[in-house]
Give the backbone structure.
Amino acid sequence: MKTITETVEIAARPEAVFSYADDIRNIGWHMTESSMPLMGSKLNVQIVSKNPTGLGASYRWYGKVMGLTIDFTETVTKWVRNKERVWSTIGEPQIIIIGNYEMWFNLEPAGAQTRLTFGIRYDLPRPLFWRLVGFLLGGPYSRWCLKNMCGDAKKALEAKK
């Protein structure tokens, strides 16, 4: 499994940062907009659990990228209010450049700011061709996602001041 992290300091209280980052619509919106890393495509997200946040919250992502079907579900496996959240894919995800993954964020006080770290630990896809593609593009794609999550959180939370 490959692990990548990205950290940002945000001029906001941990409670505000956690509330923002705990909402999949906030941290995943970069996947719902047309972008180059998604080859001009975008994905849809659906909350499939009764609870939109917290332990057991589940989300389904689906759409097409370069005509290929993307369809996977993730669920929150650890949730510590105002501190940490972990979520991972369940079942057999239909993803192009990475396989099953686990993502997380955690918060640490940093003086008057909050240090927010997002991370991902992922497997390469199983089919040999996509495994090679994942070897080349999985890291850059994952970094793009994490940088967007950090940047979006910082921008949204510091704009409220």
